[in-house]
Amino acid sequence: MSQVRDEDGLDTAKWQILCEGVVASHDGDAAAAHIATDRLAAQVPFDSQVSMYLWYLLRYRVADMLGRRPSAEDLREIAGRVYPRFSVVIRGDGSVLENVLRTVFKLASKDEEVTAGRFVVAGMAALGVLLNDPVADMEAMRPHMADWWRRNLEKFRSQGILDDRTV
To answer: What is the DSSP letter of 44?
Structure first.
């Protein structure tokens, strides 16, 4: 099990690698972003905890950008606007980015849903291109995510999303 930051309950190793990937994605450094995802795969496998961190952070960022819960059209517009930067890190058509955003807001059809390792890789890149100052923005979002994480930890365990070893 990875170390946990006692003050807020978030996994320090997972958070650090996630931040590295987000910053690299923001900077358009595809090589560094891929190194971060490779480190996640090797050191802290694509588990549900990393996915849950990204799920929350993406929801938080998009809602913060809009000042409200987004519609499917809002997500399409956001994806179209930031896709050029996203495509530097993640190759493919614009549907991947839009589908990541649709997935976190439960607006994706079964065929559009992005899951598992693909969600982590694309979600990290999506978050990176959505942030203005990734280091400051991640630090500002962390307390909100930590509060959410602590409030929902037992629910995640009871639903089988996390095991009993996850802090």
So the answer is: S
pLDDT digits (tens, 9 = 90+) for 4-30: 555 788 888 889 999 999 999 999 999
Which positions ≥6 away from 53 have C-beta within 8 Å?
Answer: 10, 14, 15, 18, 145, 149
Distance in angstroms (rounded) separating the CA atoms of residues 104 and 56: 8
pLDDT tens digit sequence for 40-96 = 777 655 567 888 899 999 999 999 999 999 999 999 999 999 999 999 999 888 799
**Residue 4 placed within a domain:** no
**In which domain, by residue range, is 126 found?**
12-158
pTM of the shown model: 0.89
Domain count of the chain?
A: 1
Alpha carbons within 13 angstroms on the beta-carbon side of residue 16 total: 10
Q: What type of residue sits at position 146?
A: A
